[in-house]
């Protein structure tokens, strides 16, 4: 990790690519509940879109009783709600899979947390009125470009089943951390989906279309699918909810420490449910010790900070493992569920340190 050395040292985003721009949050160095916008990770499939004044008008069409177009100012005048939540790329930690898989080689930083403010999607859908034939809701962004695996130009577009579209905390957001959503984070309108990986939270919303069938766009049926086998599609299933996961923020792996007491700390998060325990092991998983949790019980979608005071008296090399558990019974496994596109890595987090 590089630093700027001045009056206050500060971390920078870790760059994976610039065209399109993909950058990681310096997650090991942030201790705040809310990730400052300048440290929010960035995940793009295409170059940033050129937005016109039309981007400040959001239409809802398709299987609705009346097509409506919501101007930005009108949307902001409606009853709003704020949701504090983890936003995690489904490819976070992809570089940890073994065997290795192709794709952006994210380490631990394709994750951030913010306060998103907007209007409940179900309120807008109810204003338009849903036809009885409505099956899914499609969200199309202004970003578009070519894919390497098929001919043509594609907008980034995804759909939600009606149940998730009508979830009370699924919102059309227009603010992040108390300010208008930055262009780089998908403003002026961005879909925000709690509990699911961030591929569902479509940026730069262009239009919303209610359809009477299952959407088959490539970012729905080709990408963001768990393919458990390298050579065939048997057993494939869609990527949806965030898996129970955690990281050790400090110390970093392969750090040299002295004997004495050290504060081991990190974060844990999950999709459905809430984090109930974080445990650490110093003997390759034979025994586990509970960490102290620090969380906001009023924010069900937020991450949990944890810490453990480790008193180490003997010199040597140590492996430190941590795992999170949630209220639905979710627990980090010793090995991640391998899939050929590298989604949903959540194996027990492991670092090595040397004490001398």
- The number of distinct structural domains comes to 2
Report the CATH superfamily of the largest domain: Oxidoreductase, molybdopterin-binding domain
The structural class is: mainly beta
Return Rg in Å: 21 Å
Mean pLDDT: 96
For this structure, the CATH topology of the largest domain is: Sulfite Oxidase, Chain A, domain 2
The description of the largest β-sheet is: 5 strands, mixed
> Tally of extended strands?
25
Query: What is the H/E order?
Result: EEEEEEHEEHEEHEEEEHEEEEEEEEEEE
CATH architecture label name of the largest domain? Alpha-Beta Complex
GO biological process, one term: sulfur compound metabolic process
Domain Oxidoreductase molybdopterin-binding: 45-218
GO molecular function: heme binding; molybdenum ion binding; molybdopterin cofactor binding; sulfite oxidase activity
InterPro entries: Ig_E-set (IPR014756), MoCF_OxRdtse_dimer (IPR005066), Mopterin_OxRdtase_euk (IPR008335), OxRdtase_Mopterin-bd_dom (IPR000572), OxRdtase_Mopterin-bd_sf (IPR036374)
Question: What this model shows, in words?
Answer:
Its cofactor is Mo-molybdopterin. Helices cover 6% and strands 40% of the residues. The chain has helices at residues 72-77, 121-128, 162-165, 218-221; strands at 3-4, 10-11, 14-18, 21-24, 57-62, 68-71, 81-88, 111-120, 136-146, 153-161, 171-176, 179-180, 190-192, 205-211, 225-226, 237-238, 245-250, 255-257, 260-269, 275-281, 289-290, 292-294, 304-312, 316-326, 349-355. A hairpin with a 7-residue loop joins β20 (275-281) and β21 (289-290). It is globular, with a radius of gyration of 21 Å. It folds into two domains: 3-238, Oxidoreductase, molybdopterin-binding domain (Sulfite Oxidase, Chain A, domain 2), CATH 3.90.420.10; 245-355, Immunoglobulin-like (Sandwich), CATH 2.60.40.
């Amino acid at each position: 990790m590089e630093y700027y050395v001045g009056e206050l040292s500060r971390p920078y985003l870790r760059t994976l690519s610039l065209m399109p721009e993909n950058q990681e949050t310096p997650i090991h160095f942030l201790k705040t509940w809310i990730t400052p916008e300048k440290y929010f990770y960035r995940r793009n499939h295409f170059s940033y879109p050129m937005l016109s004044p039309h981007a400040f008008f959001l239409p809802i069409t398709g299987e609705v009783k009346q097509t409506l177009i919501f101007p930005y100012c009108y949307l902001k005048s409606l009853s709003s709600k704020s949701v504090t939540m983890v936003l995690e790329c489904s490819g976070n930690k992809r570089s940890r899979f073994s065997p290795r898989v192709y794709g952006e080689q994210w380490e631990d930083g394709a994750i951030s947390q913010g306060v998103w403010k907007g209007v409940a999607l179900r309120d807008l859908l109810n204003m338009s009125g849903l036809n009885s034939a409505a099956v899914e809701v499609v969200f199309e962004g202004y970003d578009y470009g070519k894919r390497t695996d098929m001919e043509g130009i594609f907008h980034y577009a995804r759909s939600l089943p009606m149940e998730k579209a009508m979830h009370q905390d699924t919102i059309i957001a227009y603010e992040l951390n108390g300010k208008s959503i930055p262009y780089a984070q998908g403003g002026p309108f961005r879909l925000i989906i709690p509990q699911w990986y961030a591929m569902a939270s479509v940026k730069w919303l262009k239009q919303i279309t209610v359809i009477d069938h299952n959407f088959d766009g490539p970012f729905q049926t080709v990408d963001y699918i768990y393919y458990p086998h390298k050579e065939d599609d048997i057993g494939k299933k869609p990527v949806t909810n965030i898996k129970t996961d955690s990281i050790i923020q400090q110390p970093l792996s392969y750090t040299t420490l002295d004997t004495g007491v050290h504060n081991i700390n990190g974060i844990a998060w999950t999709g459905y449910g809430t984090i109930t325990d974080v445990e650490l092991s110093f003997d390759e998983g034979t025994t586990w010790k509970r960490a102290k949790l620090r969380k906001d019980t009023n924010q069900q979608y937020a991450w949990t900070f944890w810490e453990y005071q480790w008193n180490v008296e003997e010199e040597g090399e140590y492996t430190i493992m941590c795992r999170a558990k949630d209220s639905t019974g979710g627990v980090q496994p010793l090995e991640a569920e391998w899939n050929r596109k590298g989604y949903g890595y959540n194996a027990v987090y492991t670092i090595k340190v040397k004490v001398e």
